Amino acid sequence: MTGAQPRVVDFPLRRPGEPFPPPRYDDYRRHPGLVLSYLPNGNRVWLVTRHEDVRAVLTNKKISSNPDHTGFPNISDTMGVPRQEQIPGWFVGLDSPEHDRFRKALIPEFTVRRVREMRPAIERIVEERIDALLAGGRTADLVADFALPVPSLVISTLLGVPPADREFFESRTRTLVAIRASTDRQRDTATKELLRYINRLVAIKEKWPGNDLISRLLATGTLSAQEMSGVLMLLLIAGHETTANNIALGVVTLLLNPAWVGDGRVVEETLRYHSVADLVSLRVAVEDVEVSGQLIRAGEGIIPLVAAANHDAEVFTCPHAFDPARTERHHVAFGYGVHQCLGQNLVRVEMEIAYRRLFERIPGLELAVPVEELPFKHDGVLCGLHELPVRW
Amino acid sequence: MRISVDSDRCVGAGQCVLSAPEVFDQDAEGLVTALTFAPDPGERDAVRQAVELCPSHAITVHDHGQGHSQGRDHDHGQGREDGRGHDGVVVDDG
Ligand code: HEM
To answer: Which residues does UniProt call coiled coil (chain A) (predicted)?
Structure first.
């Protein structure tokens, strides 16, 4: 069964629709089967848009996360982001069982309980950033001054970066993420500096273990030094811009829907509604496999579009409405299957504190430009804003 | 309602603990462990949600009369919104 003739769309994807309400793929989703696209190198890539199909792809053993397989859709090449080298310890790019060794070593660091213990530290980080906003006048760019530093500082706390080095750490991670504000060369330098810093930090923790993730991971004795730095770089990169973009988009959505300010349920709904990790879960078929009645050949790429799945009307009532009271909770903003986001509980706590304290402490917060003029990352791997000018 | 959990399948996402903290916990390794294998009827919806959210199908519900259901398989297809439809509970979509 190969279904109807597949619909073919251009790549790179420019997300259809305006960001508020967020990009949607209703049109793709209505087409039976899957939507086909071609990467600039001529490789075929199948776009998956229905919730059920996305979950099926993300749990199918014939479908791989490993970029070393021929046909893997390295979309970052086409989107101005340098290809992630397959470095040891970069386990988001490994399949089970290789993947599981790394994941198992890290799970204890991200339990619901452990994340709860981090709450006071996260609160302190958020308070300090808001102090800095208020001290800086009555306008700010909430991306550069809040949304980016908060997750970076949280990760540095998680890893056990000494307070004196957090400034360095934060500035380098920001350079990595700020596609517009930094050049390729600056990003390259920042990556090298971070890697060197991380390796030094690991060496220090080896000698003088502390009460932190790196020390505990070292104590398990399961990772080589090289794998260790790969794992730490992954945590750093996976947890930074994703969280920042979600915070920035979430703040705008709350400014547009002020009735929901202060309601804890907004966290889950901003995750679903904005689905920032839209082009993050990339896959390749390693055997012929059928999805949604469409035959996918071994070596063809597959992109489950989580933003599309999370706006599937078969699953979410009025999917384009921002409705924190909705009862359907099974969005795939963090993916699905064995790679489902390891940092998800950390993110939930971080966003809950960030939204709540920002609006409590700056009740007069408003956009400094009309919403249509906000610079949206229309063709980035992640959905987000380049800048978020606000005033109060 | 009776449940079982499979820590070999577990990927430590923690969704069950958030959904039904009276029924599920994470052990020292961060993997799923059941606090009870026969949850109170009042926990039914919470357990259903945990099953629905679990990304690795590590929770199984052995329901009276409904046979055996693992992962999301039990509510595949129609009316899958956290399975509440089965119990005639009105789902308020706001
Ligand atoms: C709003 C914020 C975030 C979103 C939307 C998000 C989204 C995702 C998604 C969709 C995946 C699955 C990738 C795939 O299937 O290939 C993933 C994996 C991952 N995320 Fe997140 N993430 C966020 C924040 C974080 C944070 C804060 C951390 C850690 C500090 C983190 C660490 C990871 C790791 C380590 C993986 C790989 C897990 C594995 O392969 O087993 N993420 N994330």
So the answer is: none
Which amino acid belongs to residue A290?
Answer: E
- Three-state DSSP class for B36? coil
Residues of A in contact with B29 (CB under 8 A): 104, 107-108
Residue-by-residue DSSP string for A318-350: STTS--TT-------TT--GGGS-TTHHHHHHH
Please indicate, yes or no, if residue A49 is contained in any of the structural domains: yes
Atom of ligand 1 nearest to the CA of A94: 40
Structural domain contains residue A2: no
- The number of folded domains in chain A is 1
Q: Is the CB of A155 under 6 A from ligand 1?
A: yes
Q: Does ligand 1 have an atom closer than 6 angstroms to the CB of A103?
A: yes
Q: Over the stretch A166-220, which tens digit does the pLDDT of each residue have?
A: 888 888 888 877 666 677 788 888 888 998 999 999 999 999 999 899 999 999 9
User: Is there a contact between A222 and A249 (Cβ–Cβ < 8 Å)?
Assistant: no
| Closest protein CA for atom 18 of ligand 1 | A341
CATH number at residue A117: 1.10.630.10
Please give the model's pTM, rounded to 2 decimal places: 0.90
Beta-sheet pairing, A301-304 with A44-48: parallel
Instruction: Kindly give the distance from the C-alpha atom of residue A351 to the centroid of ligand 1, in angstroms, as a whole number.
Output: 15
Q: CA nearest B32 in A: which residue? A: A111
